Amino acid sequence: MRKIIYYIATSVDGFISGQDGDVSGFLFEGSGVNQYINDLKSFDTVIMGRKTYEAGYQFGLKPGQAPYPQMNHYIFSSQLVLDNPDEKVSVCKPDIELIKELKKVKGTDIYLCGGGDFAGWLLEAELIDILKIKLNPLLLGNGVRLFGNSSKKYALKALEGKKYDYGLQILTYEIKY
């Protein structure tokens, strides 16, 4: 069965963006970012929520476009409507059973791109297998939390940790349900 890997940039205080989706303080260059970009090549499927998909618009993504051309995209939303989506982009109603089915389909592990509310929903359903954090050396004070409003408590097993340029670290954990 495929694993869901939540691979996400965070601040030291646990936010994946600041207020109003501001990610300007996060690192966008250096060896750690290069590692992340290289790691994404190993995925054939990405899942995300609507807000994460629409956040790409500020970086030039067009509605319906696939942000990761080599991956099949599943965007979970009850509100998003795309007029002419790329053949690799599917908008799906939030459905835990569909996520479970995606895990059973032959392929690579699944990249959970975000966001916080969507990841919290999956955490509550105990469907995230690996948490891979790009820990940025900054404090945001507020914004979008790593797991939204989820208050679930789980132990993590540290699998790997590595330091990169500019103080970025990539930390990998298994979630112990």
UniProtKB/TrEMBL annotation:
Signal peptide: none
Domain Bacterial bifunctional deaminase-reductase C-terminal: 2-167
Matching Gene3D superfamilies: Dihydrofolate Reductase, subunit A
GO biological process: riboflavin biosynthetic process
InterPro entries, alphabetized: DHFR-like_dom_sf (IPR024072), RibDG_C (IPR002734), Riboflavin_Biosynth_HTPR (IPR050765)
Domain of life (superkingdom): Bacteria
Recorded GO MF terms: 5-amino-6-(5-phosphoribosylamino)uracil reductase activity
Protein name: Dihydrofolate reductase
Organism, as annotated: Marivirga aurantiaca
